[in-house]
Structure formats: C-alpha cells, structure tokens
Amino acid sequence: MHVRRLTTALAAAAVALSPILASPASFASAPSEGADRVADASLTMRDAELLRPVVPPTLRPSTSAPTVSARASRRPLFAFWGKKYNRIDGFGFQTAVRGSGTSIQLGVAWKTYRGVRPILPKKVFVQARVDGGSWAKVAGARGKIGKRGFVLAQVPAYVVPAGVPAQTVDYRLKTKKITSGPRKARRSVTSKPVSVRFDNQTMYTGDQARFYAPIANLCPNASVTLDTDHTIAEKRDAVFSFQYGIAIDVAEINAITWESEASKQAVAIHECAHWRQFYNWGGTLKGFDAMEKRSAEVFVADTNPDPNVPTPPNQPDWAPLEHAADCATFLATSGAERTYGGYCNPTENAAAGLLWQGQQY
Ligand SMILES: [Zn+2]
Questions:
Q1: What is this structure's pTM?
Q2: Rounded to an integer, what distance in angstroms lies between the CA atom of residue 333 and that of residue 47?
Q3: Ligand 1 centroid to 102 CA: how many Å?
C-alpha cells in the first residue's frame, strides 16, 4: 500500500457518503411506502464522522408537541438506506476481493428521524448467499445498531471449499420480526447486499501462485490479484488495496530484468506486511487509522549509526507505515532490493517483527 493509493481510497469513501450530506434530493428519492411516507418527509441520517445535519427551524419540534401517546403511535418503522451507503470494512465500496479465511465487517446505514427514534428491531441477523444461491443465516453473526447511523456486523471468516477456485458471497442484514407493539411494526426488513469474492489461494496457478508462495506462511489468508489492466496499482508495481487486497502488476515487475526473482517476490512480502498492518488492527478503516498513527510514533526517518554501512536515501513517498513494511520485509527475506529508504533500528525491527506474529506494534 502506498500513500497515494490510500488517499484515493479514503477520498472515495468520503465521496460515496457525501450525497447524504450535500443532497437533500436523496431524502426525497429515498424509498418510502405506506406508513413510512409521512416520516420520510422529515427524514435525516446521522453519521457522526461526517455530518451533523442542522435541522431547519421550521422542522424543529414545535412548542405544540404531540402527547406521548400520539408520538408513540406515529413512531416510524426501522428501515435501511440503499446499497450505495453500504460499507465493507468501513469503506464506501460494495464489492471486494478477499482471500479464503478472511472476515469482513458489514456496515449498512439505517434511517433515523428527527426527534423520533424508530421502532427498533430486537435483533439484526446477517444473511449470506454463495454464488447467487439461496439466502441463509450466518451463524454467529449479529448486527449492532449503532448511534452513528450504521448497523455493523462482524461476519465470521469465510472459507472456500477445497477444489473450488473462488466463490462470490453476498451479505445482507435482516431484522428479526417484531412480535408485539404497533401492527405496522410487526415485520422484518432486509438490507441491500454487498458482494465479496473469496479466492481459494491453494488453487492459484501461474503468477498468482508465484507471488502467493512467498507469503503463504506470513499472510495465509491474503489474496493476490493480478492487475493486468493497470487499474488497481496504477503507477505502482504493486499495492495493498482495501478493496482488492494485494494487487500485483506483473508486467511492470517483469520489466525490471536486472532485479532478482527473490527481490521481485519480496514485493509481495512488502504488500503482505501492509495486509498485516490492516488485519492485525482489526481489518477496518477505524483500525487502520489507529495503526497509521501508531506507525508514526514507532517508525522514524533515521540513518545507520555505522558510517561504513550506507543508508539508502529516503524516497519522496517515504512514510512511517512504508518504513514499517520495509523493515518487516527485510526481516522475512534475504533478497529485498526495493526500499523506501532509511535504516531499521532495533526498536523498529522489534515492532516490525510483531506484524509477522499477528500482533500490533
Ligand atoms: Zn508499501
């Protein structure tokens, strides 16, 4: 993963959510039916990270507030926003590629209404369907209705069956039907799905196998995607992408004919270190932000104290989290020729070593 790439990913996440903030039209176009219709007219969604909508004075609860019983009878029903606000691991994309054995966090925006808490379901389940099959409940997964506008569910790791190269699993949330209270509330609602393609790494062949081999023990659950049309890594030879996992532009890697094969494979190990930086911190955007802050405390732009051993100069895009991935790569290889520059001091080596033990530094 590279800083430029990250910025793009984060910007994309922000853009995906901005229509809620910027476009009142999204309220009007939000699905509404039957008893929801009145409530939807004054609908708003709260996301503390991004927005705190200001209620127009004319829409604030008036001094002639309805009585408690009248308010209760008019409480809106619980509902989900549409697909475009769904999140995978905290990001604003609705499709992703993951390796077999990886867990995802599913986030679905739910609707809140000014001044009125909707009739909340007691439980929210996760459902999955494999390769377009039937929806089935995912055991051990439960959605938590957060105050920030999202229902979040940590979905257990999915394992692709032996002999199957890849499967696409769709996930959605489904509320448990309410059995008491207003008749209109006695219903179950389902969210729009997200879609995750899980690779079976043991079935990799060709260049996928070539670049998975060096990380099979370090990041066994990571996926390797070949960036054949140069759209994921863009101007890089390889990246760790939040959406697509480890992505390798093989044509660019092969073009460097003077580099050893061990060093080429070390590129995958560097990206695998980024995979560890993401998943050792929980595999979510929130955890990633914490990791990035922590990286800046541990990994510094230092030089070798031994004047007889030259320190590679820092590259323009040197960053603490890149230095961490470099140090981790040096620990795991004897042939890494690529580096963002700098020297790995004993503290940095110890911290980088924790990545390979599945721990945070
Ligand atoms: Zn990197």
A1: 0.80
A2: 44
A3: 21
| DSSP conformational letter for 309 | S
CA distances from 51 to 8, 57, 105, 289, 305 (A): 21, 18, 22, 19, 48
Å from CA of 322 to ligand 1 middle: 5
CATH number of 3-199: 2.60.40.10
CA of 312 to the centre of ligand 1 (A): 16
What would the pLDDT profile of 93-139 be if each residue is shown by its tens digit?
Answer: 999 999 999 999 999 999 887 777 889 999 999 999 999 999 999 99
Q: Ligand 1 mean position to 274 CA, how many Å? A: 7
CA 68 / ligand 1 centre spacing (Å) = 57
Please tell me the distance between residue 276's alpha carbon and the centre of ligand 1 in angstroms: 12
Q: Where are the domains of the chain?
A: 3-199, 204-356
Strand, coil or helix: 332: helix
Asked whether residue 191 carries a pLDDT value surpassing 50, the answer given is: yes
Distances 161 to 165, 199, 200, 321 between C-alpha atoms, Å: 9, 10, 8, 34
State in Å: Cα 200 to ligand 1 middle.
Answer: 24
200: left (phi over 0), alpha (psi -120 to 50) or beta: beta
Task: State residue 72's pLDDT score.
Answer: 54
Question: 333 - beta bridge partners?
Answer: none
Residue ranges of the alpha helices (H) in the chain? Answer: 3-22, 25-28, 36-41, 68-73, 206-212, 250-255, 261-279, 285-298, 320-332, 346-356
Alpha carbon of 15 to ligand 1 centroid (Å): 24
